[in-house]
Amino acid sequence: MNSEYSSILQQFPFDGSFIKLDTIDEGHINTTLKAEFSGAKYIIQKINTVVFTKPDELMSNIFAATEYIKHNLSAQGIDPSRRTLNFLKTNDGKMYYRDDNGNCWRSYVYIDNCYTLSENCSAEEIFEAARAFGEFQNMLSGFDGSKLYESIENFHNTPVRFKAFLEAVEKDPVGRVKDVAEEIEFFKARENETGIVTGLLARGGLPVRVTHNDTKINNILFDKDTKKAICIIDLDTIMPGSSLYDFGDSVRSGAGTAKEDEVDFEKMTLNLDIYTAYVNGYLEGTAGSLTDKEIELLPFSSKLLTYETGIRFLTDYINGDVYFRTTHPTHNLERAHTQMQLVKDIENKFEQMKEITASAAGRIKSES
């Protein structure tokens, strides 16, 4: 065994005798290992301190959220071992281990007999995924999200993203602005909507909640036997925010009819059947914990998060592709176009989305 890994294994209170260690994914920055002991299996991960420069704050958020969920589940007589990630503290009581090279390592219990999904999901699978994210929100509804650290500053602050976009247009560092006049006007024309959610949060019109901020379907574990979604994973971006961020980005990433970088961007539309599954699953999972204002703004959040993602792609294109990884010179522009197209289709279907949302909310309320 690699001597570095041997040293790491000695830092955590693993159960039983060591059996084997497998590398799940190894890259330049991140390493993920699966350690099997006679008593249990564990995941060991190196924290990406290039992206997350404050591992103490990162792990404080994760421990606070998962411990709160475990307490809630246990109080309901539910075994939390498969319903949330169970992180281990080191033998000396710390939330992670920092090795002699400055690398930060953490560990949590491996949840067996599970699988994840990615593309081409059915409406039933989408419903399950949305229900799981809704349950995640519901289990944390009593937690004061403002007590968490902001692990990525202004991550879903759309007015800040818009300001960065205007600055890019003004500086035009690589001379691309002349070629994207229509795209620039598209985003400028919708500026008045950028501050709706952040404004309500600031004025207390929306509650500050614990948000996951990466609500793609592949961040959910499904039980192999029941086919039910049971556990939310990839908790690095947990921070304070609005439930609308999680819902809106789920719809943006899951209910579109084309890939994010589809060249024929007119193929990108909103699948209303998938949107319906998202709304029904999310509202069932949240189980009445959302406010009326949050429910009212669910359709708008789908547009806002799509708009925000699009403006980030266009900003990066104007800046010379310095943030998102690209494979060709117009990659970010193509991505911006698909998001713009999805925004337009959401606008065209907005009244239908409102009706779908109101119907789902009414059904959930009548059944409760």
Overview of this protein structure:
The chain has 368 residues and is α+β, with helices and mostly antiparallel strands. It has two domains: 3-112, Phosphorylase Kinase, domain 1 (2-Layer Sandwich); 123-367, Alpha-Beta Complex (Aminoglycoside 3'-phosphotransferase, Chain: A, domain 2). It has helices at residues 3-9, 55-75, 123-139, 158-171, 181-188, 196-203, 243-254, 272-286, 292-296, 298-319, 331-348, 350-367, and strands at residues 18-26, 31-37, 41-46, 87-88, 97-98, 104-109, 114-115, 209-211, 220-223, 229-232, 239-241. Strands 1, 2, 3, 4, 5 and 6 form a six-stranded antiparallel β-sheet that branches. The N and C termini lie far apart (55 Å). The model has no long low-confidence stretch (mean pLDDT 94).
List the helices and strands and how they pair.
Blueprint: H1 3-9, E1 18-26, E2 31-37, E3 41-46, H2 55-75, E4 87-88, E5 97-98, E6 104-109, E7 114-115, H3 123-139, H4 158-171, H5 181-188, H6 196-203, E8 209-211, E9 220-223, E10 229-232, E11 239-241, H7 243-254, H8 272-286, H9 292-296, H10 298-319, H11 331-348, H12 350-367
Antiparallel strand pairs: 1-2, 2-3, 3-6, 4-6, 5-6, 7-9, 8-11, 9-10
